[in-house]
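CORE FACILITY INTAKE
Project code: CF-77B
Contact: R.S. (postdoc)
Sample description: multi-component assembly, two entities in total
Requested service: structural model of the whole complex
Turnaround: standard
Below are the sequence entries exactly as provided by the requester. Do not edit them.
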Amino acid sequence: MTEVAVHIDDVSKKFRLYKERNQSLKSAIMRGRKSVHEDFWALNDISFDINTGETFGLVGDNGSGKSTLLKCMAQILYPDKGSIAMKGRVAALLEVGSGFHPELSGRENIFLNGSILGMSKQEIVKKFDSIVDFSGVSEFIDQPVKNYSSGMYVRLGFSVAIHVDPDILLVDEVLAVGDETFQQKCADKFVEFRRDGKTVIIVSHALGTMMTMCDRLAWLSHGELQAVGNPESVVAEYRGVAQ
Amino acid sequence: MAVSSEFKRSRELFINLTQRELKGKYKRTVLGQLWSLANPLALMLVYTFVFAFIFRIAPPVGSPSGLDAFPLWLLCGLLPWIFFSNVVQQGMGVLLANEGLIKKVYFPRNVLIFSSAASLAVNWGIEMMVLIVALVIAGAYGVIVWLPVVIFFMFLLAVFAVGIALMLSIANVHFRDTQYFVGIILQLGMYLTPVIYPISLVQVQSDRFGSLFGVFSLVDLYRLNPMERFLSAFRSLLYDNTWPALGDTVACVLISAVVFALGWVVFRRNERKLAEIL
């Protein structure tokens, strides 16, 4: 059972900190350049593996690079150095309800959002009832989503995303959506994922939940990997530094 | 295998985004899709009044169709021009409009441009059908025979417009001025292209000046505009009911292929950086 699902090899990611950014043609021409910037390395030579079937957590302070790393895994950002190899279908829960069209109904948006997340039409048709059921907005499914409460909106988005049925699920602190019943449903869904041998990668600040949910944790600080290992020892180390 | 599933995914996303565009646009309007016909019709009325009635511009009589009607002649050029202009303008802004999506979800980014163009193509298709019915009623029965060639040229124009939109959408992410600048260029372009007056009037002026610098005439310069070629082809097919000039056909095919290839390469090169730059 030690098959590698995600192989992160020497990954570095650089951002440009702009001192002056000329997004208009006039200023670019007047100053003779597009921008003045400084390189900021958000990730520095990060290497570790995540095994298949593992629930893996990324922890660290704000700005430590954990979300950047997650976005690199989701292929939204691309590392400047090194490489990331993902094995299987990947779904990212970085934001829920991305691409919802406010004027379209919940039903139409499920199909739209599903296909943005990479589901085929047959797949969505097959899972449609389950998606609606999970979201708990079945009464309003033919209403335009702009009339939804923010909770309903988020629940529908989350429900679509969680039905993508990926081999690797990337989650960025969206666990705290909806009311208590809905949160319980989400927790159950994660347990189900785990039981099915799927890989889940979570970024969060909630150390308590992370300790109980994750098999292993990685701790990042200022773009450097500080520790990888079992949750208790990593959290202890992290807390030790924080104090 | 990976490539084909990626393609399949893009295709479904493309269909869904196009539907989103089409369905979302005229939601909660009484006339719905009919609104897309209102704009070209209004333009037709205005231009016919100003240019045919007041300025007395007379379009050439269609041969062999025998048509002699300014509004129809105008629409044969106006509809392709409006489509081109819309694809470029809308496509240019589509990356900015979908910033949230690009930053949060991975999917092939070019689908956004393609679906924006496709939704406009659907509207254009409806407009062209209405025009063809009008042409037949006016007596140009021959147009029916030329439908396949018309569709071929519509496809070429779409390819050309998408190629430009691919390039400009990237430029617009770097410099937000692009959209305003191009907006003005398109406005000027409409008057530098024989949309509302026939090219024969340009020819008259050109003959008056003779050759410039002994190498080319004014009309040669004027015909460097690729849209002139496209409109000339559409008018031959729809208004005259005959083959477009060979030179125009070759020019249209070459220009579309080159511009699209260029747009594709430019987009490919910049696609990965989009989430960061936006």
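Facility notes:
- Residues 70-97 of chain B form the longest helix (28 residues).
- Chain B has a mean pLDDT of 91.
Invoice: internal transfer
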